[in-house]
Amino acid sequence: MTVLVGYPPNLQGRSALELGAMLARSAGSDVVVCSVVPAPWLPGGTQVDAEYLADMVDLADRALDRARSEAPADVPVSYVQLQARSGASGLLRAAEEHGASMIVLGSSTAGVFGHITMSSVASRLLHSSPIPIALATRGFRCGESEKVSRITVAYGGSQRDEALVGAARHVASQVDASLRLALLAVQARPPVTARFGVEADDVVAVWTADMKASARRALQAHAPQTLESDRMEIVVGRGSRWGEALDSIGWASGDVLTIGSGSAGPFARVFLGSRAAKIIRDSPVPVVVVPRARAGELSLSDRA
User: Fold this and answer.
1) Within 13 Å of residue 106, how many CA atoms lie on the same side as its CB?
2) Closest Cα partner for 154 from 256, 291, 38?
3) N or C end of the chain: smaller count of CB under 10 Å?
4) Answer CATH for 2-135 from 3.40.50.620, 3.30.70.360, 2.60.40.420, 3.40.50.300
5) Shortest CA distance to 252 belongs to which of 150, 116, 146?
6) 279-300, pLDDT tens digit by residue?
7) Which residues pair with 36 in a beta bridge?
8) DSSP states along the chain
């Protein structure tokens, strides 16, 4: 398994490289660091175009030199520069050429430290990639030789979430990590003068019981051995906003959050629904988005 890390020419790729190294270290795989240079739109462009391209190639060279100085010594890392019409298309091409199983990206430098803000490249890949996309929080750093210690699945009770459970179980077993299913109850606070607060609590309690039962059925169907494991738990996050619900379940070093792609997009591609976009924006830990088709393949791996 190869992990492809997108390292932008602006030299702001340390977080993606740190996450890529942690994921590769956990799976015993290698890392390919890729810097994409914009290709000229027309053959035989003007002198200005040639000078611009030369400047971009120089920036990409410096980005890869920076990546070499930041790369950990315990993970095999190679470096590649290529030209493409866009950063997203270039990374997809590099992923195909190198047989990558995942593309890792950092957050926009305009985002909040410790959270994920999607760049234009990330936004495009999150609606088109046939392989999982991992997103690092801004400023993400991991300890020396640190591995993934726990995989948390944002479980919503749908059929695609059931396949995601099986996929996460397969990956957790491969990287020797524990598994956690997170049920996120996001509900606006009712007026304090009304009885709605008590009624809302009753509704959430029923929902929680139903969702836990659904989660256990998903584990029974896709990961039956996990039910009896002390390395699996089901937690409920509550809050009036997605950020509150996510924060309420607690996070630790080595945590990774996994979500599935939305149901509206192509089956074989990542497609980011509104719920997934909100979770990504408020997640305090790196997020891996898995296409539905890939989740289905992985969920069957342990059952074959």
Assistant:
1) 28
2) 256
3) C
4) 3.40.50.620
5) 150
6) 999 999 999 998 876 666 665 5
7) 82
8) -EEEEE--TTS--HHHHHHHHHHHHHHT-EEEEEEEEEPPSSTT--HHHHHHHHHHHHHHHHHHHHHHHHS-TTS-EEEEEEEESSHHHHHHHHHHHTTEEEEEE---TTS-TTS----HHHHHHTTT-SS-EEEPPTT----TT----EEEEE--SSHHHHHHHHHHHHHHHHHT-EEEEEEEEE-PPPPTTSTHHHHHHHHHHHHHHHHHHHHHHHHHHH-GGGGG-TTEEEEEEEESSHHHHHHHT---TTEEEEEEPPSSS-TTS----HHHHHHHHH-SS-EEEE-HHHHHHHHHHTT-
Domain boundaries, the chain: 2-135, 150-301
pTM value? 0.87
The beta-carbon contacts of 210-214 under 8 Å, at least 24 apart in sequence, are 210/157, 211/155, 211/157, 211/183, 211/236, 212/183, 212/236, 214/155, 214/157
Query: What is the spatial distance between Cα 241 and Cα 231, in angstroms, rounded to a whole number?
Result: 28
Buried b (16+ CB within 10 A) or exposed e, 181-195: bbbbbbeeeeeeeee
Q: Round to whole Å and give the CA distance between 243 and 231.
A: 25
Choose among 179, 22, 171: nearest CA to 14: 22
Q: Is the alpha carbon torsion for 267, 94, 166, 274 positive or negative?
A: negative
Q: Residues 43-66: pLDDT tens digits? A: 555 555 778 888 889 999 999 999
Query: Quick one: 150-301 is in which CATH superfamily?
Result: HUPs (3.40.50.620)
Q: Give the rounded percent of residues in the chain with a pLDDT score beyond 90.
A: 50
